[in-house]
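Feature request, filed as a ticket because there's no other form

It would be nice if the structure record came with a short human-readable summary line next to the tokens. Right now we just get the raw output. Example of a typical job, pasted below so the devs can see what we mean:
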Amino acid sequence: MTVPNATAPRTIRVLQLLAMLDNGGVEKWVVDLCEQGPTEGLAMDIAVVHEVYGLFAKRARDLGIPIFHCAASENPFRFVRNLRRLLREHGPYDAIHCHIHAYSGFAVLAAWLEGVRARVVHSHNVVRNSSKSLVRRAYAVIARGLIGTFATAGMGPSTASTEDLLGRGWRKDRRWRVLRCGIDLAPFRAPVPATSSRAAFGIPAGALVLGSVGRLTEEKNSEFLVDVLAAVLERAPDAYLLLIGEGALRGRLAAKAREGGFGERLLLPGVRPDVAAILRNVVDVFVFPSPPPPRGNEALPIAVVEAQAAGLATVISDGITTEAIVVPELVTQIPEAAGARRWAEAVLDRARRRDPELAGRALAIVEQSDFNCARTLQTLAKLYAGEPAG
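Raw output as currently delivered:
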């Protein structure tokens, strides 16, 4: 007869609530959390407001992570009804973790009504909405009021993103905190496959390769990257630009490079599952020019931290919080408005000053920081269990 182990910890069930499960950094981060959750006794499901799926939805399904659809509505209280039904049908859940900015207020209300003990809200943007619409302002007041009333914990990866959702006085409330989106560092130690090599992209061995990761959109300043490539090519004719990601500007970027006479130097491989390997084995200088708000909305881009974990020389804009700088010796920060030539100079300067010894130490520095996913997961496990996380 087998005697149950009375001391075995109980598995904590968590529902991760996202706007969609497409191809962004937040989506990748949440799937990484779900995959590693069992190490902390966590079993996680995912729910999406919009049925928009991409690479990370496929990865979640391959990992056996359940994905549910909880339809939103112009009437948010219909969303509350839908979410309550989902929580009843697929629960019981011990915790809900909401990644839908202010709309999370209605989610934590639904979770409270269904008796979910831990109700966590997470800000991933710096929206700074200054809408003069009376309806939008009323919505913001109501949603944030619900967060203040029903959330048991709240956070953002940076000071600005935490303040954006939780208010300027967030430090006075013990429920709120800055919590870094720690990254999975295992891919930065794994062997690099041949599919993640320069040869696989048709890049000559001695070429200078600029790289970036993110959606190809206006708020990421993707078109400016093509301008930077053009300026770099004036002084380094062997240069390439590798943009990993998808988005509405893909066609415009390709056309701009063709019109400039360097179409073959802009590589657009789409969304890739092997970002860490490509950063380590293909890219020389990582470039990330997202503009400051209101044109940009970066909270703390995970890709910038990944570039440092890969040991890459990195050039970022003033639209990126300095909280993203983990290895300062690797990073140059300049104004986004400085222009393509100034950015090209910074890129070429960084390329000349590459330090193999520092690159080799960078991963260990990130591992010891709050950007290590293991640390983030430990903190979240305490919050999900209703314990103080320090």
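Something like this underneath would help us a lot:
The chain has a mean pLDDT of 94.
The CA atoms of residues 73 and 116 lie 22 Å apart.
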